[in-house]
């Protein structure tokens, strides 16, 4: 009788050991498969979040040097802004620039202790992307009516200025630039309220209620240059934020040496979601590892117990000329069959159970856990690896003893 027939007859004869192997690996295979599926789904979800949420990099000056004129705060060249936006890691960018002006056909809000200096009392801030800008300053400024500026002729004013001067959406305001000495008119497109306490210093245009928000192009004209104050860059992949910042620091600054550029990477929204998913993936990895280790220990124990009960049988086979290799192959087959059957049954039983797990995981983390071919293949490979690792006990015992020694042990 060859070793293959002996293996199948032995499986049928030693039913207790076979059933124990089958039940043990049925449970373990389900745990391993769920762990693999959740881990894979978590990684896919993290990648989706990386591409959808993204991140941002704020470019500003660590030491903004304020010159005697307010426009001096705009210390970043427009050329620098364009080069940063051209980087392949950037989805899009926006910038803002500021200036001071004098209210022409309306009056600014003056608090106690503040005096007008006669040249400027209004703070004008222009952005290349007003929608993005108002979103970024939502904790300070809230648009309460109307809409953000959509062209260079529109502006948003504070509710304080609007009430003080009886202005509303659609009205026109005018300011005078202390640099160009020209008059600039804006149509009010929206009204905002400030969440900051009024500025208590003596510079009127620094009062938050005296700010006018518009596009960047009219502010460039008022400043007689296209320098910007800050740049906001939206990353395609938040994981590349720090690498981008390091590379950007090596680029030419086009500004004076005393201006130190600061690159602030903001990926907090991505990290908040990704960290919880990474924890879920880590737990799934741990579940797979523990299940594999537990399976190896369990199978090693069952093989060892089976081997001790069959040492006399092995000794007889060796005495009649059967090779150790065929005996090892026979016992390996006896382990492979119930384990592979248990894995197959585990895959079948996992499909209805996966629906329950899928609902719970989807609701809590947005992870769409599903059983895929890749995870099934990995499960079978894990099972085969566990059998081979556990069989080392059997190989060691069979190789170690000679027929006479085995029979004497019995």
UniProtKB/TrEMBL annotation:
Xref: InterPro entries: ABC3_permease_C, MacB_PCD, Macrolide_Exporter_MacB
GO cellular component: plasma membrane
A Pfam family per the record: MacB_PCD
GO molecular function, one term: transmembrane transporter activity
Statement: the UniProt record of this protein carries the keyword ATP-binding: yes
Compartments (UniProt record): Cell membrane
Location, primary (coarse class): membrane
Leader sequence segment: none
Membrane topology, from the record: Multi-pass membrane protein
Alphabetized UniProt keyword annotations: ATP-binding, Cell membrane, Membrane, Nucleotide-binding, Transmembrane, Transmembrane helix
Residues covered by the MacB-like periplasmic core domain: 94-249
Transmembrane regions listed in the UniProt entry: 20-41, 286-307, 335-357, 377-399
Residue ranges occupied by any ABC3 transporter permease C-terminal domain in the UniProt entry: 286-403
Keyword Iron-sulfur: no
PANTHER family named in the record: ABC TRANSPORTER PERMEASE PROTEIN, MEMBRANE COMPONENT OF TRANSPORTER-RELATED
Protein name: Macrolide transporter ATP-binding /permease protein
Species assigned in the record: Fusicatenibacter saccharivorans
């Amino acid at each position: 009788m060859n070793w293959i027939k002996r293996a199948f007859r032995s499986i049928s004869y030693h039913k207790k050991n076979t059933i124990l192997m089958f039940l043990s690996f049925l449970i373990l295979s389900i745990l391993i498969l769920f762990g693999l599926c959740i881990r894979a789904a978590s990684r896919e979800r993290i990648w989706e979040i990386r591409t959808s949420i993204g991140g941002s990099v704020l470019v500003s000056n660590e030491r903004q040097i304020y010159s005697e004129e307010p426009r001096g705060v705009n210390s970043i060249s427009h050329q620098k802004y364009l080069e940063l936006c051209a980087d392949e890691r950037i989805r899009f960018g926006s910038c803002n620039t500021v200036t001071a002006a004098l209210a022409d056909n309306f009056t600014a809000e003056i608090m106690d202790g503040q005096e007008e200096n006669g040249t400027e009392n209004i703070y004008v801030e222009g952005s290349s992307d007003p929608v993005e800008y108002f979103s970024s300053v939502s904790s300070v400024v809230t648009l309460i009516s109307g809409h953000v500026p959509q062209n260079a002729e529109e502006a948003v004013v504070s509710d304080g200025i609007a009430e003080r001067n009886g202005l509303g959406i659609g009205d026109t305001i005018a300011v005078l630039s202390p640099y160009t000495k020209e008059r600039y008119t804006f149509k009010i497109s929206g009204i905002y309220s400030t969440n900051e306490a009024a500025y208590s210093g003596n510079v009127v245009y620094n009062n938050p209620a005296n700010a006018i928000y518009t596009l960047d192009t009219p502010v460039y004209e008022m400043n007689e240059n296209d320098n910007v104050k800050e740049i906001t860059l939206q990353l395609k992949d938040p994981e590349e934020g720090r690498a981008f910042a390091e590379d950007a620091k090596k680029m030419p600054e086009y500004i004076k040496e005393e201006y130190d550029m600061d690159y602030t990477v903001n990926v907090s929204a991505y990290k908040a979601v990704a960290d919880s998913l990474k924890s879920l993936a880590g737990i799934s990895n741990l579940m797979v590892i523990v299940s594999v280790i537990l399976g190896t220990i369990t199978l090693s124990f069952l093989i060892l117990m089976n081997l001790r009960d069959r040492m006399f049988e092995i000794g007889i086979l060796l005495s009649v000329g059967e090779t150790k290799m065929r005996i090892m192959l026979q016992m390996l087959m006896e382990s492979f069959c119930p384990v592979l059957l248990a894995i197959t049954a585990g895959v079948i039983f996992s499909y209805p159970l996966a629906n329950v797990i899928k609902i719970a995981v989807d609701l809590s983390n947005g992870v769409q856990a599903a059983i895929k071919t890749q995870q099934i293949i990995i499960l079978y490979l894990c099972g085969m690896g566990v059998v081979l690792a556990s069989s080392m006990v059997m190989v060691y015992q069979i190789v170690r003893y000679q027929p006479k020694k085995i029979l004497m042990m019995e």
